[in-house]
Amino acid sequence: MSTNCLFCKIVSGEIPAKIVHRDNGIIAIEDVNPQAPVHLLVLPERHVANIAEHTFKGSADEITSLMETAAALGAQNAGGFRLVVNTGTDGGQTVDHLHVHVLAGRQMNWPPG
Ligand code: AMP
Ligand code: ZN
Fold first, then answer.
1. What is the span of the domain harbouring residue 95?
2. Taking CB atoms and a 6 Å cutoff, what residues make up the pocket around ligand 1?
3. pTM above the 0.85 mark?
4. Which CATH number covers residue 21?
C-alpha cells in the first residue's frame, strides 16, 4: 500500500467506493465521475503507479487477471465497450495507481480528446 494513494485507500476500505467485482488481487469499482452510462475502473489491489511502471515479467498473472476482468466486465455490454489506460501527465492520468477504465453504454468517439 502506498500511504497517500486514493485507490490504495479504496482497496483497504478507508475510502468508500461502489465495488462491483473483487477477485484474484483485482478490484473493480464504479467511477465517481462517469463519462459514459457504464464507467468502471479495474485495478490491481497492489500499488503500481501506472502501466509503464509495471514489471510485466514476474507479474504476468496480475496483468492477465487485470485485463481478463476488464474485458469480462466490458463484455457485459452487448453493444461493445472501450478500455482506456491513461498514463502520465500527457496521457491524462490523475490517480497514480494503475487502472483500466471500462466505458460502455454509448457510441464512443475517435479520436479521443
Ligand atoms: P485517470 O484520470 O485516468 O487517472 O482516472 C482516474 C479516475 O478516477 C477518474 O475517472 C475519476 O473520476 C476517478 N475517481 C476519482 N476519485 C474517485 C473515487 N473516490 N471513487 C471512484 N472513482 C474516482
Ligand atoms: Zn495505490
1. 6-104
2. 6, 15, 17, 29, 31-33, 41, 86, 92-95
3. yes
4. 3.30.428.10
